[in-house]
Give the backbone structure.
Amino acid sequence: MTPWLAVILTVMFAHFAIGPASAEPSAADKGIRFGQAQSAVAICPGMILTASAGKLRADQAAADLQDFDREAGKIRKAWSEAFDCIDLDPETHRFTSCRRTKIASCNAAWSEIGPDGSAIPGLIGFKPEEKSSN
């Protein structure tokens, strides 16, 4: 299995493992989403972690931090391995499948953990637009 496919499947599994929005996610499930948020910030242009992301980890009970951190680490590692690739083919100057997968993963992260996310909303946002000094 290609690394980028592993990332997509991991996040899809996480989405279904957490279950309905009304169910309280476990520490491991929250760690998965925290890792997704950290990875999206590293890969997706303009995305930032919100205060809610920091609070998500800070609110974990000491006994749950190991599960939270382990799952977050798995997701960060999967994204890092999957997206250690080039975006533009140097010969054809076309976007590679890696770039298209990055875009799809960024879109999925936004829909799952963005301001109106379906999994754990509010973990990521966009950097405020800088005003021109003209």
The chain is about 55% helix and 5% strand.
